[in-house]
Every structure is written in structure tokens, then in C-alpha cells.
């Protein structure tokens, strides 16, 4: 791997994204719109429903969007033969995946800053911990979605197949992360599965930041999310194919 080559790949991806206005709008604006819709839904209801479910969905929306966009974009590169041409040059699989991760990670950072800022400053989401740490967790979760999207692109053969991985990798995490039933209240088997799903730790970190100013457990959860993201990138680099069979 070469830092120069990796940065060149990242620059190429960012250039493509800048020219794709619809994708950029979905990446940057959609999470803010979804959080705003969520706030609007719960505004007239009694209680603090938005403060209860908002942190979990603030973790989920960037994760889901980055997963979909990254997996489909990478499959498009391979299906069009671009990846095969790139890898015929002095470019390793690690350079390719890390370059994509850096580019989408930068977009994820901007996306998360916008979503967190809108949720806290405009929509009134109550938090006890530092806003900066809340943003870091949101960024890490979006990067996790990027890493899993890159991993999926190594196994899927078409863009449609990449989307089909969502029920297998994303929806179980949404169901078991504690959004619908507290993780402590899950049956033993489902609780054990929830303990090995990275989105569970992202949601836990978000909820801790809204409930307490003690950030010790938040850093532990953040470390788990980052470890899953790195592991997904490494596995993706090991399994990435040059072209679709």
C-alpha cells in the first residue's frame, strides 16, 4: 500500500461524488430530513418520545445510507470494468478500499456534523454528554456503514445483489439494537446475538450521551464500533475481486 496512491483513489472518488448532485444530496441532506420528519411525528405527542428514540435513529440513518451508497457505488466500479483497470496499475486492493473508505469517511463526517447539529440545535434533542463526542460516535457509525458496504461489494455480483444484503446485515441489527425492545429485555439467544452486532454499541453510545455526562462507557462502545469497521475493511481487502464473474 502507498499513501500517495490511496490519497489519489480518495481524490478520484470525491471528484465523482461532487459531480453526482443527487447522491451528494442523499448523503448530506437526507439524514437531516429524516430526523426532522421524526421530530415532526412526535412533536404533538405527550412525553419525551423524540428524546427517547432520536439517539438510536441518529445512529441508524447515517449507517444505513452509507451502507447502501458505498456498496452500490463500488459494485458499479467493478461491473463497469473500472476496478479491473485500476488494479492492473500499481494499485493494491488495500489502496482501493482504503481510498474509498477515506473518501466516504470524509463525506460521513460532514453528514454526521449536519445531522447532529440539526438534531441538537434545531430540533432540541436533549443530551448530557459533549456534543463533540456525540458527533464522533455518529461519524464512526457512518464509517462502519461504509466499511460494511465495501465488504458486501466484495461478495455481491450486481448492484441489486448488494441491496439484497441489507436484510441480512442491516435489518437484524436494527431489530436487535434496542430500538424496539431494550437489549436487557431480549431473550437470551437474541441478547447474545445483539452483543456481537456493531450497531448495538453505536446505539448504546448515543443513548448514554443523552442520559449521562459520564463518557467512560461511551468510549468503550466507540472502540467496538471502530474495531468492527477496521475488521470489515481488512476482510473486504482480502476478498475483493477484480471484476464480476
TrEMBL record:
Q: Output the Gene Ontology terms for molecular function.
A: ABC-type transporter activity
Cited PROSITE patterns: ABC_TM2 (PS51012)
> What do the Gene Ontology cellular component annotations say?
ATP-binding cassette (ABC) transporter complex
Chief subcellular site? membrane
Q: Provide the transmembrane region boundaries.
A: 24-42, 54-75, 96-125, 131-155, 162-181, 222-240
Q: Where is the ABC transmembrane type-2 domain?
A: 22-243
Gene Ontology biological process: response to antibiotic
The cellular location(s) given in this protein's UniProt record come to: Cell membrane
- Keywords, A to Z? Antibiotic resistance, Cell membrane, Membrane, Transmembrane, Transmembrane helix, Transport
Family annotation (InterPro entries): ABC-2_transporter_component, ABC2_TM, ABC2_TM_bact-type, ABC_2_transport
Q: How does it sit in the membrane?
A: Multi-pass membrane protein
Q: Which family does it belong to?
A: Belongs to the ABC-2 integral membrane protein family.
What is the name listed in the Swiss-Prot or TrEMBL entry for this protein?
A: Transport permease protein
Amino acid at each position: 500500500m502507498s499513501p500517495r496512491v490511496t490519497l489519489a483513489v480518495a481524490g478520484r472518488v470525491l471528484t465523482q461524488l461532487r459531480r453526482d448532485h443527487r447522491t451528494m444530496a442523499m448523503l448530506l441532506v437526507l439524514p437531516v430530513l429524516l430526523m426532522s420528519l421524526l421530530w415532526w411525528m412526535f412533536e404533538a405527542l405527550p412525553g419525551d418520545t423524540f428524546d427517547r428514540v432520536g439517539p438510536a435513529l441518529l445512529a441508524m440513518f447515517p449507517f444505513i445510507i452509507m451502507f447502501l451508497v458505498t456498496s452500490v457505488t463500488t459494485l458499479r466500479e467493478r461491473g463497469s470494468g473500472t476496478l479491473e483497470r485500476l488494479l492492473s496499475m500499481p494499485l493494491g486492493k488495500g489502496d482501493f478500499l482504503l481510498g474509498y473508505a477515506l473518501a466516504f469517511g470524509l463525506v460521513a463526517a460532514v453528514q454526521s456534523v449536519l445531522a447532529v447539529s440539526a438534531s441538537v440545535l434545531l430540533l432540541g434533542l436533549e443530551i448530557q454528554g459533549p456534543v463533540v463526542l456525540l458527533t464522533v460516535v455518529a461519524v464512526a457509525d457512518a464509517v462502519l456503514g461504509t466499511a460494511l458496504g465495501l465488504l458486501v461489494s466484495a461478495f455481491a455480483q450486481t448492484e441489486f445483489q448488494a441491496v439484497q444484503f441489507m436484510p441480512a446485515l442491516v435489518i437484524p441489527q436494527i431489530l436487535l439494537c434496542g430500538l424496539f425492545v431494550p437489549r436487557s429485555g431480549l431473550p437470551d439467544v437474541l441478547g447474545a446475538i445483539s452483543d456481537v452486532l456493531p450497531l448495538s454499541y453505536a446505539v448504546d453510545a448515543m443513548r448514554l450521551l443523552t442520559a449521562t455526562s459520564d463518557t467512560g462507557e461511551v468510549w468503550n462502545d466507540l472502540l467496538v464500533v471502530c474495531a468492527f469497521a477496521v475488521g470489515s475493511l481488512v476482510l473486504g481487502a482480502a476478498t475483493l475481486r477484480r471484476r464480476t464473474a
